[in-house]
Each structure stands twice: as structure tokens, then as C-alpha cells.
Design brief:
Layout (H helix, E strand, L loop, with lengths): L2 E4 L5 E2 L14 E4 L44 E3 L1 H7 L3 E6 L10 H13 L5 E4 L3 H13 L3 E6 L4 H9 L3 E5 L3 H15 L2 E2 L5 H4 L5 H9 L7 E5 L4 H15 L9 E7 L4 H7 L26 H11 L3 E4 L1 H15 L5 H15 L8 E6 L7 H4 L23
This protein binds pyridoxal-5'-phosphate and zinc ion (ZN).
The site of pyridoxal-5'-phosphate has 17 residues, from helix 8 and helix 12.
Length: 404
């Protein structure tokens, strides 16, 4: 890592707690000196099976700062039964539901809390649509740092229970994620908190690049043709594109022509709407309304950058409704044994829609990122029909149940 660099005017800053350009207010990104980085495919072979196996490409200087719960290196699951149902030949699920706190957010949180420790901050926090709250709280607990999370009051109960059990102070806001985000950012300044997706954001987003690295490594150093990414703020999608770029730049993969498609729910789809309407600007959604609460970010911080990344890559934007999300949860669980939350499975629902629209060739190698676990949102799955009928423990009753 050499510097933080403004995305708009390219001005460089030291790698401290800056996150916006003083000149043009553009966001700052971490830049590395790729010509000085010597990494080969073999470099990673004997490393631990978590995201820190790629530490040369992560923005932590001192290994002692690392706060590790084992996030990353999740299974890349060859999904033949699902592929057959959808009419594909080469489909993989990147199963990020099995991270330490059960969503992909453990990746950026692990990097951000490590950076907070390296910068000497004495407390951390985050605004969250649900999953980041637990990811930040768990890593803060591991680091022994106090943690403050800012959530909209109406997120799923399991996510609140989980985050508060890790010891975080929960600040439930009477408002949307955007309101929580604004308050968290002000609190960060006033109380000197490291807000993982605020003043530590340049470092935070680097953790999510590893979702591209791992997919390349797990496919035998061949990048996929097409990936589908659940999208809220757009940070994850942009980080995945950066990951593929870096592996190409370092010669670890031959070429990077990965199409990156954005998946959003109807009810909060500002990025997909811009893509579908041919706009470069993103119009905020004032009152997000969706089953996929983890994607309910009306004013996405990386919205325009995500639109640009999808377009440049040759990918698409597509959105699905609550019913399509429920169906995708059942489809993925019953064909592949992976239980996802609505925000995590939106990629699978969108894949199905893109296939129906003829936008994906049957032989394309497709990876769907599945980013959050179904146990976090049991109420989303089905309102009725989950509880089995209670029967006497007698063999006779089985005659009506097991038909074979
Ligand atoms: C936060 C989240 C996303 C989206 O990430 P962004 O970086 O906000 O685009 C996707 N899936 C799940 C389960 C999430 O919690
Ligand atoms: Zn600038």
C-alpha cells in the first residue's frame, strides 16, 4: 500500500484516517505499488484458509494489528442441480453465508477493525442494515474495543440479538439507513470512533476484494465469465471488480473479462434503475420497502461508481420482487443445501431472470455471490406452513407421510 488516492482528481494522501479528498470531496481509495509486489500463485498455497492469505494486497502494515475470526476462504460450491433447473452448464455459488457472523460483511469488518487497531483508535462503530452490525461487533469483541452500531429500528430481530450479544451498544434509529449513516458519521467525528464504513471506509472496502481473489484461486486461477453481486451501497460490487483487476495486473490470471451484474430488490433499486435507464447518475430512493432489508440503502455511497463498473465490465442490472426472493431462497436451499437470507440470495433470483431474458449463455461460467445466511431472517421465509403437524410416535401415522 502506498497511499490513499482521490477517485476523482487522483490527488494522493498519506494512509491515515482520511476518507474524502480535501480538494474535490471525492472518495479516497487505497492504491498499491503493483510493480514492487512479488506474489505468485504458489505464494498463497500454504497459507491459512482465510482472507489474510492475501495480506500483501490488504492495507495492514503490521501483522500484529490483524483481528481475525477466520473470515473468508468460504466454499465455492459447484451447483449442478441448480444449474440443471435453470438451464446452465457451469454454475457456482460462492457461499459466504458461512463466515464467522454469517455474512460476507466479516471480510470488510475484519480489515477495518484491524486498521482501527493499527491507527490506535480506542473504539469502533458502524451504521448498518443488519449484517455489518454483527460483523463489526464480533471483530471489536475479539480486539477488545468498545463498539457502537447504528441501525434502522425495523431490521430483523435476529440481527439485533446477535450484534448485542457480541457486546455492542445498539443505537436503533427512528429512520432509514441513510439517517443512521449520517448520525454515525457525525458521532465518529465527535467521539473519535473508527466508523468502519465511514472514516475507515477506504480500508474497509479492501476486505471485500478477496471475494474475487478466492473465486479465481478456487477455479484453478481461471476467472469466471460472469458474476452476479447483491448490491446495496455498491461497495461490494466495486471491490470485486478491483479484485479481478488486481489479479490480472499481478499476472495471477491471464485476462480479466469478467462481466459483473448488479442484483437489487424492487423497492430499493437505485443502481439497477440507473443501469436499466441508461443513466450515469443515481437517484436516491427515499423510503426503501423490501424483504431484503440488508440491501435497503436508498442513497448508495458507491452508486455511480457501481453503475460505471457494471457498464465497463459488460454486465447487467436486474431487480426482483419479494415473492421472487422467497422462491429463490427455497430453490437454492432445496437444490443445493444452502440456506440464504433475502439480501443474500438476490443474485440467484436475478440469475434466473437474466436467463429467462436470454442474457446469459448456457455455457457461461457463472458465479453467484450468496452473501448472507437464512437463519438471520427466519420470518422472511414463509409466513405460514413452516411448523410441521405434531403426530403420535407410532409407525401407523407414517403411512400418510412417507409415500414410497
Ligand atoms: C451489505 C450487504 C450486501 C451489499 O453490500 P454493499 O457493499 O452495501 O453493496 C449484500 N448482501 C448482504 C447480505 C449484505 O449484508
Ligand atoms: Zn479529489
Amino acid at each position: 500500500m502506498i497511499a490513499l488516492q482521490c477517485r476523482e482528481c487522483q490527488r494522493q494522501y498519506p494512509t491515515d484516517l482520511s476518507y474524502v479528498c480535501e480538494e474535490c470531496f471525492g472518495p479516497l481509495d487505497v492504491v498499491y505499488d503493483y510493480s514492487k509486489l512479488v506474489v505468485k500463485r504458489e505464494t498463497f498455497e500454504d497459507r491459512p484458509k482465510n482472507l489474510w492469505r492475501y495480506h500483501e494486497l490488504l492495507p495492514i502494515e503490521d501483522k500484529n494489528s490483524i483481528v481475525d475470526l477466520g473470515a473468508g476462504y468460504t466454499p465455492l460450491h459447484r451447483a449442478d442441480r441448480l444449474a440443471k433447473r435453470l438451464g446452465l452448464q457451469n454454475l457456482f455459488i460462492k457461499n459466504d453465508t458461512v463466515n464467522p457472523t454469517y455474512s460476507f460483511k466479516d471480510r470488510p469488518a475484519s480489515v477495518a477493525v484491524s486498521k482501527a487497531r493499527e491507527l490506535g483508535l480506542s473504539a469502533v462503530g458502524s451504521p448498518s442494515t443488519g449484517n455489518l452490525a454483527s460483523a463489526t461487533a464480533a471483530h471489536a469483541a475479539r480486539a477488545g474495543l468498545p463498539c457502537y452500531v447504528f441501525i434502522p429500528f425495523d431490521i430483523e430481530p435476529a440481527k439485533v440479538v446477535q450484534a448485542s450479544t457480541y457486546g455492542a451498544e445498539i443505537i436503533a434509529i427512528n429512520g432509514t439507513y441513510d439517517d443512521a449513516n449520517k448520525l454515525a458519521s457525525q458521532a465518529g467525528e465527535l467521539y473519535n470512533l473508527g466508523i468502519v464504513n465511514g472514516n475507515i471506509r477506504p480500508y474497509y472496502v479492501e476486505g471485500s476484494k478477496t471475494l474475487a481473489f478466492e473465486v479465481c484461486e478456487q477455479l484453478g486461477w481461471i476467472p469466471p465469465d460472469h458474476v452476479i453481486v447483491p448490491t446495496g451501497s455498491g461497495a461490494l460490487l466495486c471491490a470485486i471488480r478491483k479484485g479481478f483487476y488486481e489479479f490480472e495486473r499481478l499476472g495471477l490470471i491471464k485476462s480479466n473479462e469478467v462481466k459483473i451484474s448488479s442484483a437489487q430488490p424492487v423497492g430499493c433499486s437505485p443502481i439497477v434503475d440507473a443501469l436499466q435507464q441508461g443513466r450515469t447518475s443515481v437517484t436516491p430512493v427515499e423510503r426503501p420497502q423490501t424483504l431484503a432489508k440488508s440491501l435497503a440503502i436508498g442513497d448508495p455511497g458507491d452508486g455511480e461508481f457501481a453503475v460505471k463498473n457494471v457498464r465497463e465490465s459488460g454486465g447487467f442490472g436486474e431487480k426482483v420482487n419479494d415473492e421472487e426472493l422467497r422462491q429463490a431462497i427455497h430453490l437454492l436451499a432445496s437444490t443445493e443445501g444452502i440456506f440464504a437470507e433475502p439480501g443474500g440470495v438476490v443474485s440467484v433470483a436475478v440469475l434466473s431472470k437474466l436467463i429467462d431474458a436470454g442474457r446469459i449463455d448456457p455455457d457461461e461460467l457463472v458465479v453467484c455471490y450468496v452473501t448472507g445466511n437464512g437463519l438471520k431472517t427466519p420470518e422472511a421465509i414463509s409466513i405460514e406452513g413452516i411448523q410441521p403437524a405434531v403426530v403420535e410416535p407410532k409407525l401407523e401415522v407414517l403411512a400418510q407421510i412417507i409415500r414410497r
